[in-house]
Amino acid sequence: YYQSFALGFYEYFLLCEDIGAAPLPILNCGMACQFNSGELAPLDQLDPYIQDALDLIEFANGPVTSTWGRRRADMGHPKPFQLKMLGIGNEQWGPQYIERYERFAKVLKARHPEIQLISSAGPDPDGEKFNFLWPKLRALNADLVDEHYYRPPQWFFDQANRYDRYDRHGPKVFAGEYAAQSVRVVSPDNRNNWLCALAEAAMMTGFERNADVVRLASYAPLFAHVEGWQWTPNLIWFDNLRVFGTPNYYVQQLFSRNRGDAVLPVSLSASGAAPGKTNLFASATRDEKAGQIIVKVVNRSGEPAPLAIKLAGASKVSAKAQATILSAGKLTDENSLDQPQQIAPVTKTISAMAPEFIYNFPPQSLTIMRIKAK
Predict the structure, then answer these.
(1) Type and span of the H or E element at 269
(2) Which residue, 196, 152, 194, is CA-closest to 333?
(3) H helix or E strand, kind and range, residue 9
């Protein structure tokens, strides 16, 4: 990637603090990128890499009386950064990774049990590497396993129920890199079109329904200059003067701004769809402070979907509710520097609400409803 290397850990922690994010550095575990050189630090020379991790934790969280805490204070930030998560390697695989992760985990968990460790499930969401790593990491009581998926939109629709069947008592999941690929993985012709964004929204309803398993998720990559990039798609594009969010960005924004505090169970029944070919995907949460039920529905069909919504157990439903819709004229539609909001959320008020009501979900759309109810 084109990069200046001008962003160090200190600047990274400051950026996270400024935007209200939790830092999650991913550290070298003594393995070079296995897609490139695949070089390995011998196991008997791994201590400096582990010490780097210990030093980083002390730099982020240590008291000003410690060596690296004092360095942080001297740089102008005596207050700790409250680092809580640390990644050990990125997209690593094979027995060599397990050997190195185990050594990192043994030392870091003994010295800093408060730090959650992110481990790698390799570069793919299935296959030999993935199937080798998960049992090994489960046996090591890994905190979170980082799953990556760059796949066609259909894969995302097909995998929307992926986490329904995960072990509720095993390691948790960090969906650390994902994006639907309109052409193929690593193709320079991939586009941030509405079909890809809609497929990701369907998958994200599965993230939300299974929030007890999927603890974190992040689309990737985040930023790209329209004339200087090595990977596409990307969430946000810019030139030297302008910036625009893709349809995928607005999907992320809507899920982020409508999270709720507690996941509600959802039962979705639709007739006329072949097994595994459903056109409807849904999740629901409750916003305790606002006293609202938040319902998210993806309709991938090219036809409107009139659905009977039944808010089981709800009472005193307000007469009006809010619906925010993200949709496009065509599945191939995109945003651009010249048309930055060709695809953007539209919010409207809907009336005649009750514990049971009919709502017509637009074709090929993501709809988020906020309904005030007890």
Answers:
(1) none
(2) 194
(3) helix 9-19
Catalytic (active-site) positions: 91
CB atoms within 10 A of CB 152: 17
**Model confidence pLDDT, tens digit, residues 210-242:** 999 999 999 999 999 999 998 999 999 999 999
Evaluate the omega torsion of the peptide bond into residue 221 and state whether it is cis, within 30 degrees of 0.
Answer: yes
- pLDDT tens, residue by residue, 136-190: 999 999 999 999 999 999 999 999 999 999 999 999 999 999 999 999 999 999 9
**β-sheet bridge partners, residue 369:** 295, 323
Average pLDDT, the chain: 95
In angstroms, rounded to a whole number, what is the distance separating the alpha carbons of residues 66 and 59? 9
Point out which residues pair with 175 in neighbouring strands: 147, 217
Pairing of strands 346-351, 320-327: antiparallel
Using CA atoms, how far apart are residues 304 and 365, in angstroms rounded to an integer? 9
Distance from C-alpha of 29 to C-alpha of 221, rounded to nearest angstrom: 22
State which amino acid sits at residue 72: R
Strand order across the 214-219 sheet: 26-27, 85-88, 116-120, 144-151, 172-180, 214-219
